Amino acid sequence: MTEQTSRQTATRRIVVAGGGPAAHRFADAMHTRGLEGWDVTVLTEEAHLPYDRVALSKALTDSSVDLTLGSASMWDHASLSLKTGERVVKINAEAKTVETAAGSIFEYDDLVVATGSDAMRLPIPGAEHVHVYRTLEDVWAINKAIAELTEKLGRTINAVTIGGGLLGLESAAGTEQLGATPVVINGAPWLMNTQLDEGAGQSLGRLIEAKGFTVHGGVFPSQVLSDDDGQVTGVLMADERIIPADLVIVAIGVKPRDELFRAAEGEEPQFSLGARGGVVINDFCATEVPGIWAIGEVANFEGMCLGLVAPANTMAEIVADRLHGGAATFPGFDTATKLKLSGVDVASFGDAFARTEHSLEIVYADPARGVYQKIVTTDDAKTLLGGIFVGDASPYMSLRPLLGRELSAEPGAYLTAAGGGDAPDTELPDDAILCSCNNVAAGTIRDTINGCGACDGNAPVQELGELKGCTRAGTSCGSCVPMLKKLLETELTKSGVEVSKALCEHIELSRQELFDAIRVLELTSFEEIMAKYGTGAGCDICKPTIANILASQNSAYVLDAGRGTLQDTNDRALANMQKDGTYSVVPRIAGGEITPKKLGVIAAVAEKYNLYTKITGGQRIDMFGARLEELPEIWKELVDAGFESGQAYGKSLRTVKSCVGSTWCRFGVQDSVAMAIQLELRYRGLRSPHKLKMGVSGCARECAEARGKDVGVIATADGWNLYVGGNGGATPAHAQLLAKDLDDETLLKYIDRYFMYYIRTADRLQRTARWQEELDGGIKHVEDVVVKDTLGIAAELEAAMAKHVDTYVDEWADTLKDPERLRRFRSFVNAPDQKDDSITFVSDERGQMRPATAEEKSRAGQQPVLIGASIPMRPRAENEV
Q1: What is the dihedral of CA 255, 261, 264, 269, to 10 degrees?
Q2: Measuring CA to CA, how many Å separate 431 from each of 23, 187, 326, 542?
Q3: Dihedral sign, Cα of residue 350, residue 353, residue 357, residue 358
Q4: Most Cβ neighbours (<10 Å): which of 228, 241, 590, 726?
Q5: What letter would DSSP give residue 852?
Q6: Is residue 828 predicted with pLDDT exceeding 60?
Q7: DSSP string for residues in 643-695
Q8: How far apart are CA 241 and CA 238, in angstroms?
Q9: What is the pLDDT of residue 425?
Q10: Burial bucket for residue 854 (CB in 10 Å: 0-12, 13-18, 19+)
Q11: Are residues 545 and 511 in contact, defined by beta-carbon separation less than 8 angstroms?
């Protein structure tokens, strides 16, 4: 019996052989188009969800990084299934089935083969002792080997990478980041010889040698040497030299995994294969056998198989389109390449080698600086054919979409390294591909910005994050994000939307500019600030923003000195308002650690005031259903028991989630609970542009989900790894590695700097992930400021945080001391003892109370009311709600 016999025969069955990026993109394309009437099964031999192979270098240097593509929830769809550990070993085209190594049989109506490629091996003695660079398991093994060898030998090891192409240089850069001495052996005379000409390759070689790499070019290895225990000792070259090595990585290219298409001995071939492998496909990615398609690196189109993400994505979309009755065709391979290698920019696209007849090469080379820029045009110097950039690739993004089009200026104007300033501004035609990874044209982006049906409701898009989500542009390698942002601003300006950094209609300054002005002039009141920088009485944008800025610069009571009227509803009540007009109470439970005695206090308070209780995702206990007038009574009991405000209502630090760490866990390598408590007590009460969340994991197993937080800390045997810029929400983001193996003091110092820099420069209501994303330079800029102190403001940022730590006072403890402050907490200002009778609770099926629905209130004879409709009989005083 086959795996799919029980499936409905009316459903069209699609089987995908392979689970890499191309397979994921195909499944996603089918999911996007709608899966009603389809049944898609993806068979992958790996144990992981499909992951981003382009980002393998991240997993090489950080084995805990999550490279999963897209949202894992996609695979929960009833018509889409992913089966891991299932390697397809045979196609029976006549029976329309595939067989896996585990003996499972899967029936199909259409088969999409996306088996990708394998790393090429060296046919030389000793090759059994080398590592390859292709899968997560490969890079994890390299990471582990470097750590173990370094500890065993007690010195910096020599990590030799054989191969000077994209993968080779990527792996060599990773070994350098892991603390090894990087050595590159390249058979060609210069690096990246497939993408770069000799001048560019030599420039690249000089630049990376200046970074501490050793490069041996123009000679091939003949043997990998090792001792009797199999430990690598060196590489013997064809010219008899021996290059010392403790670890050897081979990254000399890939070969298509086309064994499914090869006929067994004595059988008649059904599929045509390319001279260098890969199954031959036509221009809509179909093989010669009806119902069988091939996409990605296994597909041979016009004699080529190519291991780049852009053509693989395009092929996947084409097959999905064809299966749905479309007529999409494959336009050919986009060979453009852009990477940053150890801080060195490299880019190549189009006819980089000027092979077109009568083509011109316009070149600027500065060997001393390691800068090389070349533009290739037609013989009239008008039409762009290609280009190469090393050391300064800033013109690449402007030029790449113009491939095959006339330039708007003389070619030499684009050679920015020659001192001519920025590349000329050029209006991209609608059909120009701005994001090659996801094949998104400039016209599609313009339509989305202007609201032409790309999003629900035809609403225009005015935010970069939303634009990326709608179009997918900028969501893969990210190199097109600057151009995407520029196009967004241009289109908004054209449509009459002023691209302004003004905070609101009352204040022309941006939040960052206003923050700096308030800080430098030491302004302390809303009236002072509006008199100097604003107009009118303010609004619900500038008022809470100013209140937030004032609170982040000093720890004075947030509702005093006229600041109470500026705050949002939740801040005014020092509690979160719920749907029925009641409030929630969330005491701080630092690091999730709490004594049984304090648990008893929470239980007693919840029972006394009949509150609904819920464990939060941040390891605290939330109590719902408190009336406004009950808040002071509840908090008095909590404060007397040693609790303080958890500030769940503020744009501030919420929680620091932690696992149990080395104290209890047999896998823990550091005391994560102690560190989490230290962090939470240090940054409690810190007001910021948006809420802040942190996490601390005691080992790489990541039980505290630290990389989903604004600041995540993960323990290593040598200290702490610091991750920044993560968040959940509608557009989740993984935090990125900022620094690794830090001691406690350095960790705190870097977090101090990071938080204060974010607080000073982010827009209002901007999470750290979006702030980081929109910074010019992204995480590299953050590293320059926080770790390297390139702006020279580290001491100032640390001093600002020290001031916050020294002056912190719990808001609820302060409130309870002052009768005037307590007057805020009344449902009716003219009747202090009267309760709001519109608030009604019922018991739910789980034995807790909840707000009554409108229907339940109606049955009880109550009239429907609006939340907050209790109207005071006289004007509120300044310090009243």
Answers
A1: -120
A2: 26, 40, 19, 41
A3: positive
A4: 726
A5: P
A6: no
A7: --B--TTSSBEEEEEE--GGGT-TT--S-HHHHHHHHHHHHTT-B-SS-EEEE
A8: 7
A9: 66
A10: exposed
A11: yes
748-753: long-range contacts (C-beta < 8 A, 24 or more apart)?
748/678, 748/679, 748/682, 749/798, 750/722, 750/786, 750/787, 751/679, 751/683, 751/711, 751/722, 752/797, 752/798, 752/801, 752/802, 753/785, 753/786, 753/794, 753/797, 753/798, 753/801
Residue 649: φ, ψ to 5°: -95, -10
Distance CA 147, CA 129 (A): 17
> Among positive and negative, which fits the CA dihedral 483, 484, 487, 492?
negative
pTM across the whole model = 0.58
Q: Classify 372 as helix, strand or coil.
A: strand
Angle (nearest 5°) at CA 550 between 546 and 554: 170
Q: What is the pLDDT of residue 155?
A: 93
Task: For 699, list phi and psi in degrees, rounded to 5.
Answer: -165, 180
Residue 41 token pair: 């099964």
Token digits of residue 6: 């029980």
Q: Dihedral sign, CA of 643, 649, 653, 658? A: positive
Query: CB neighbours (10 Å) of residue 391?
Result: 20
Among 79-88, 111-120, 265-274, 786-795, whose mean pLDDT is lowest? 265-274
Please give the single-letter amino acid code of residue 155.
R
b/e map 513-530, b = 16+ CB within 10 Å: ebbeebeeeebeebeebb
- 3-class SS of residue 184: strand
At 542-562, the pLDDT tens digits run 888 888 888 888 767 767 666
Pairing of strands 653-658, 692-697: parallel
What is the CA 660 to chain-centroid distance, rounded?
Answer: 27
Q: How many beta carbons lie within 10 A of that of residue 338, not counting itself?
A: 19
- C-alpha to C-alpha distance for 223 and 236, rounded to whole angstroms: 5
Q: How far is CA 730 from CA 71, 143, 361, 400, in A?
A: 12, 33, 47, 32
**Using an 8 Å Cβ cutoff, are 337 and 350 in contact?**
no
Contacts 24+ apart (CB under 8 A), 562-569: 562/525, 562/526, 562/527, 562/878, 563/526, 564/824, 564/878, 564/879, 565/878, 566/526, 566/538, 567/543, 568/544
Contact call for residues 691 and 651 (beta carbons, < 8 A): yes
DSSP letter for 432, please. Answer: S
